[in-house]
Amino acid sequence: MANLLITGGAGFIGSHTCLVLLEAGHQLIVIDNFINSSPESLKRVEKLAGTQNHLTLIKGDICIESDVERAFAVAHTSNALSYSSIDAVIHFAGLKSVSESRIHPLYYWDVNVNGSHTLLKVMAAHGCRTIVFSSSATIYGYPRQTPTPEDASIAPINPYGHTKATVEQLLADLAGSESGWRIARLRYFNPVGAHPSGLIGEDPRGIPNNLFPLITQVAAGRRSHLKIFGRDWPTSDGTGIRDYIHVMDLAEGHYTTLKVLLDEKPQMLTLNLGSGVGISVLEMISTFETTCNQKVPYQFTARRFGDAPKTIADASLAQARLGWATKRDLIEICRDGWAWQQANPYGYDS
Questions:
Q1: Which residues form the NAD-dependent epimerase/dehydratase domain (predicted)?
Q2: Is residue 250 scored above 60 in pLDDT?
Q3: Does residue 160 carry a catalytic annotation?
Q4: Nearest to 42 by CA among 66, 63, 21, 61
Q5: Number of neighbouring beta carbons within 10 Å of residue 308
Q6: Beta strands of the chain (E only): which ranges?
Q7: Which tens digit of pLDDT belongs to each residue from 23-50?
Q8: Vertex 64 angle, CA 60 and 67, to 5°
Q9: pLDDT in tens, 108-134
């Protein structure tokens, strides 16, 4: 059992990971400013975790050093258990919209880069040298090779991707500057789905940036139709292909990564987390319609700037190093994501 600090733990991936960690017996301190998340998600995580729940929530901002210090200083006693120190950090906190990052690059650099710098500075001061960082396949830009391995060129094409690549470099510099650091840089592809209970799931603010929540909102009648950006991509059906990973598989990937870091000697792991399977936009719509018995009206529109025709993970290294691979297929993604949408038509504000 470890004492863990989870930044951004109320978000989509963070909340599902918190549940997996609680079920494994870990004690959690979560810091979140709720800019793009809701504290309701963690209330539901606590409900799902039941008697295994040992979670303390701090409303705070990783860009503010005193807030991060509060997370390290907090003392929580419950069932004769206490947080004496932080053994490791899982770092989810940050901004994640590609389109918004083009409009507000300074904001993205401040939160994603300066916030990470502040977190690492406080960690070092407290002797905590284990961190799992939430990175992104966006750093590959237009991949020259698919499936894309971890040693592919880092060539981001938007400010969001640049911030993720910069934090990755910061972590590499830190690992090279002094011994004792245990670091994992996890590059996600396309997290989707929800917990099968329907209690926690993805709750995007405003218009979603990603395909799957748009599909579920159209099916629920919140939007009239889905826009498909481009029908002339060099793919089998002319629509873009992506690698979709069930959020529970992703959460379990974090748990397994953390275990390896804590059990093995200091090192830096850089791993893709994806299914290794490419699904086109039309394939995703068709599978959703068949699985959930719902129609999803769509219209084709022009290609969107910055989109690549195909992004698929080469996740073989994660399987070799962690013994981890995705277990849930596209049907489960659709079923669980639709159950969340039905139970929570307006997300956590329902």
A1: 5-260
A2: yes
A3: yes
A4: 21
A5: 17
A6: 3-7, 27-32, 55-59, 77-78, 81-82, 88-91, 130-136, 182-188, 190-192, 226-229, 241-246, 268-273, 278-280, 298-301, 310-311
A7: 999 999 999 999 999 999 999 999 999 8
A8: 45
A9: 999 999 999 999 999 999 999 999 999
Angle at 281 between CA 275 and CA 282, to 5 degrees: 120
How many residues make up the chain in this entry?
Answer: 350
With H, G, I as helix, E, B as strand and everything else as coil, classify residue 32. strand
The CATH architecture assigned to 3-349 reads: 3-Layer(aba) Sandwich (3.40)
Cis status of the peptide bond prior to 147, with omega within 30 of 0: yes
DSSP class of 304? P
Average pLDDT for 184-212: 95
For residue 52, pLDDT over 90 is answered with no
What would the two tokens of residue 343 be?
């139970």
The Cα–Cα gap between 202 and 213 comes to 7
Q: What is the mean pLDDT of residues 59-84?
A: 76
Which amino acid would we find at residue 305? F
The rounded percent of the chain whose pLDDT value lies above 70 is 96
What is the phi/psi pair of residue 249, to 5°?
-65, -40
DSSP 80: T
Per-residue pLDDT, averaged over 223-227, amounts to 96
Looking at the whole model, is its pTM more than 0.90? Answer: yes
Beta bridge partners, 6, equal 30, 90
Catalytic residue chosen out of the listed positions 160, 188, 244, 255: 160
And the tokens for 283? Answer: 């394939």
